Fold:
Amino acid sequence: MRVFKEVSLADSLSVLNALFGFTAVTYLLLYGIRIEAFVMFYISTFADGMDGFVAKKTEKSPFGKELDSLADSISFGLFPAALLVKYDSNLFPYASLFLAFSLLRLARFNVLNVSDFLGVPTLVSALVVTSLVRVDANITLVIFITILLSFLMICDVRYPRVKDALALAVVGLVLISAIFFTEMCYAILLLSAVYIILPILNEGVRFWRERRLKKLLSKQE
Structure:
């Protein structure tokens, strides 16, 4: 089995990401919405983060990028979608939209050669959806946010990779705290909102400046 000779340490973490995501889905189906399912989900996010970090420090495998996206489709696509349906069966159409657009976003990411993300990362979208369910958010709000995130995942707005060690440490601390305190989900929602909104505002400012510059140039002509 040559495939095992080609698997890197980063690939092993991607597989762990998928397994923890699958465990979260399984627990959700068997026992309903309980903290254990969220714990498995949070562990999958750490595995995903470590996967990227290790891939930069060690030798990359030929299928690492594809494996990472496949794992993300389970942990950050399937689990949030299943969670929405478990939260309220009427959310099935919106959960299906979320899952479909998650897959589209991950597939597009694999064929693009960009340093940043194009569209909101599935991890961020999954954190928002799971946090809304944990804080027992209003169904109307959940529907609105789910639809919005679905389209933002496939938009053309560039989102930066978070590389700052302090910022990553803060996010990690918040996620660990969320395992024990549901209230920390509000911090997750706040951090996610800042990450999602700032690039959109920057794009809006850039578009306005370019449009204003074109008007000035046309007047000079």
Notes: The chain has a mean pLDDT of 87. The first strand starts at residue 117 and ends at 118.
